[in-house]
Specification:
Layout lengths: L3 H10 L3 H19 L6 H17 L10 H20 L24 H11 L2 H12 L4 H8 L3 H25 L1
Helix pairs in contact: 1-2, 2-3, 2-4, 3-4, 4-7, 6-8, 7-8
Length: about 180
C-alpha cells in the first residue's frame, strides 16, 4: 500500500502539477526553516527554497525513493545554498544580526536563553550546524544526514557529539556567570 506522499510523487512524475503542489505545500516550511539556519536574509533563503523546488521538479524522475523525499529536497536546498555562496565567493557564515535593546542602568536586562542558543549556533561551522539541525530538530537519522551532506555516517555522529559538547560547555560557562 502506497502512502500519500509516495502517491503524490508518482503522480508528479507523470506530470500532475497538483500532486507536485501538494509536495510543495508539505515541504516548503520545513525546508525554509532548515535553510534559515544558514542566513539571516529571508529573501536569500526564499531563493534557495524556490531553486531547490525547481530542481526537484526538473529532476523528479531521478528520485528513486531510497531515501525520504524530504532528505532529497534538503540536499537540493543545501546544494543551492552552497552554489550561491560559491558564486558570491562568501566563505564565512554571515551572522544573524540581533537588535540590541537599549536599557537604562537601573533596569536589569532580561537574559534570553533562546537568543543565546541561536547566537551559539551561529558560532558553529556550516556542517556542524546542519548535522545538529537535521538530527535534533528535523529528526533525521545519521544515515540520512550522511547521505544529504555527503559525509560518512560516523562523521555525522562525531560532529553531533562535538556540537552537543560545545553547547553544553557554553551553557555551563553561562550558568557560572549568572
Amino acid at each position: 500500500m502506497m502512502n500519500q506522499e509516495a502517491l503524490w510523487i508518482e503522480k508528479a512524475k507523470g506530470g500532475d502539477h497538483r500532486a507536485f503542489k501538494s509536495l510543495y505545500e508539505v515541504h516548503v516550511t520545513p525546508l525554509f526553516r532548515f535553510l534559515r539556519q544558514f542566513s539571516s536574509d529571508t529573501g536569500q533563503v526564499e531563493d534557495w527554497v524556490q531553486r531547490a523546488f525547481i530542481k526537484a521538479f526538473e529532476h523528479l524522475q531521478d528520485f528513486q525513493g531510497r531515501a525520504r523525499f524530504s532528505s532529497w529536497l534538503f540536499t537540493l536546498g543545501l546544494n543551492e545554498m552552497r552554489m550561491d555562496r560559491r558564486r558570491a565567493q562568501i566563505v564565512p557564515m554571515v551572522p544573524i544580526e540581533y537588535d540590541e535593546f537599549s536599557s537604562s542602568e537601573s533596569e536589569p536586562q532580561q537574559f534570553d536563553w533562546n537568543e543565546t542558543m541561536k547566537a551559539w549556533m551561529l558560532d558553529l561551522d556550516e556542517t556542524k550546524r546542519a548535522v545538529f539541525t537535521l538530527y535534533e530538530i528535523e529528526g533525521y537519522s545519521h544515515a540520512e544526514i550522511a547521505e544529504m551532506l555527503n559525509v560518512a555516517e560516523s562523521t555525522s555522529r562525531t560532529l553531533l557529539s562535538r556540537t552537543k559538547r560545545y553547547l553544553q560547555e557554553r551553557w555551563k560557562m553561562e550558568e557560572t556567570r549568572r
